[in-house]
Amino acid sequence: MADNKEEFCELLRSTGREGVEDVIEYLGKAGFFKAPASAVHHLACEGGLVEHSVNTCKAALAIWEAMKTVNPDLAYEVKRENVIIASLLHDVCKTDSYEKSPRRRKNELGQDETYMGFKAVDSPLPIGHGEKSLIMLLYNTPLELTDEEMLAIRWHMGPWGLNFNSGEEMRLYDGANDRALVPIVYSADLLASRIIERK
Question: What would the 3-class secondary structure string for 47-100 be?
Fold first, then answer.
């Protein structure tokens, strides 16, 4: 866990972005570095959220590097710091989303057992996943995000965070995907949770 926090802070600082130290301080006080990434799926353990954030950042940087070989113009459209900021901070919203709770599972012998895990709790700010991350960052830190970074954080769930009953939301999502950083972060988040972090 300490290694993931160290790597997270090192990556964030490598952007040279003003306000990064305030973000790190805010996340520490809010419990980000101890929070799980989920209640029962990927990295449902203490420190899972910071590990998932680092994994997503590594995947996003790998995608960005690979896509630049296919489309060299991407180097002008998306900078390394944009990839790092958006991918590391996409799940800030999960900081207060879980609490420790007894859970049930089958052990190696197929017997039921109780263990201490996590459960999802109602958010004090009941708003969409990506929007909540943005609001928490913008309200609690002086970090200035670019439009592309905000869109990538807002839409990092890709179509999974889309209300298909809203034509307006579908148009907004489609427009956001015209910004290259948006599909990079969504793809990286998916790859981190489904491949890097699979059991």
Answer: CHHHHHHHHHHHHHHHHHHHHHHHCCCHHHHCCHHHHHHHHHCCCHHHHHCEEE
Say if CB 45 and CB 72 are below 8 A apart: no
DSSP-assigned states of every residue in 1-32: -HHHHHHHHHHHHTT--TTHHHHHHHHHHHTG
Token pair in block for residue 86: 């958006």
Q: What is the tens place of the pLDDT at every residue in 45-85?
A: 889 999 999 999 999 999 999 999 999 999 999 999 999 99
pTM of the model: 0.90
Q: What is the pLDDT of residues 128-143, one digit of tens each?
A: 889 999 999 999 999 9
| Dist CA 124 CA 99 (whole Å) | 13
Spatial CA neighbour of 151 closest among 169, 173, 126 = 173
Separation of alpha carbons 24 and 16, rounded Å: 13
Q: Which residues contact 166 (CB under 8 A, 6 or more apart)?
A: none
Long-range pairs for 27-32: beta carbons < 8 A, 24 or more residues apart: 27/92, 27/95, 30/95, 30/96, 30/136, 30/140, 31/95, 31/96, 32/92, 32/95
3-state secondary structure of 189: helix
CA 38/CA 193 separation, integer angstroms: 10
- Do the Cβ atoms of 14 and 169 come closer than 8 Å? no
